[in-house]
Amino acid sequence: MKLRILIKEMKRQLYILPFAIIIIACSKNDHIQPTSCSNIYYKDYNPDTNVHMPFLDTLSFYLDVNNDSLADMRFYLHHYYENYGPHYYDSYTISIIGTDRLQFISTAWFSGPCNSPLDTSLYISNTNQVQPSFQIEYIAPVSMIQCCSFSQKGYIGFRLNQNGQNYFGWIHLAINSFTNLIIDDFAMCLCPNSSIKIGQR
After folding, report:
1. In sequence order, which residues have a C-beta less than 8 Å from that of residue 172 and are 6 or more positions away?
2. Which residues of the chain are modeled with pLDDT < 70?
3. Read out DSSP for the chain?
4. How far apart are CA 9 and CA 2, in angstroms?
5. Where do the structural domains in the chain lie, given as residue ranges?
6. What pTM, to 2 d.p., does this model score?
7. Most buried of the four, 49, 124, 125, 185, by CB within 10 Å?
């Protein structure tokens, strides 16, 4: 009698075991780090590209991030005057605008309308939210708005959609003295839908 009960209990545990293994495996998958990209297009500007904002004018600087001779994003630098009574004040705006196929990885607000740099430990992938433009600097004394989130070099992430596939990358840049855009380097993963770590080259 005891032997029959023991055999029955052993059978019950054998039925439960495969489900327990599946649950453990799924739990482990939730904590796996994204795989690093194995094929990267990388460009290092040496010396760094220095784009100077024109006086009381607008300048657009275009960047091709995947070396296909097509502009993927536009850096928009704008210097203008704001007037308050008889006084005029220098105002500056630096932003990046994507094309219909390129968007930027969303970040928290740094201050005012400016976006913050990405953390260097971040993997960019399909799980990240995106936005059509990225505000780097906004200096408007009359409106009492002033933010510049890249006074030190930082990273911006982007997502490029090509032939229905997503490609991810980063740009390393800074703003100097409100009027100089300095682009250090950038990289893009050439494997579709694969993640890339910020700074990976």
Report:
1. 153, 154, 155, 183, 184, 185, 186, 199
2. 1-35, 110
3. -HHHHHHHHHHHHHHHHHHHHHHHHHHHHTTPPPPPPSSEEEEEEEEEEEEEPPTTSEEEEEE-SSSSSS--EEEEEEEEEEEETTEEEEEEEEEEEE-TTEEEE---EEETTEEPPPPTTPEE-TTS-EESEEEEEEEETTTTEEEETTSS-EEEEEEEEETTEEEEEEEEEEEETTTEEEEEEEEEE-STT--EETT--
4. 11
5. 1-32, 40-197
6. 0.80
7. 124
Q: 25 CB contacts (<8 Å, ≥6 apart)?
A: none
Contact (CB, 8 A) for 73 and 102: yes
Query: Angle at CA 93, nearest 5°, toward 89 and 97?
Result: 165
The first and second tokens of residue 60, run together, are 């657009």
Place of tokens 């939730």: 30
pLDDT at 35: 64
- 197: its two tokens: 């770590």
Beta strands across the sheet bearing 87-98 = 58-63, 73-84, 87-98, 133-140, 145-148
pLDDT given for residue 64 in this prediction:
97
Select from 39, 50, 43, 48 the least CA-distant residue to 75: 50
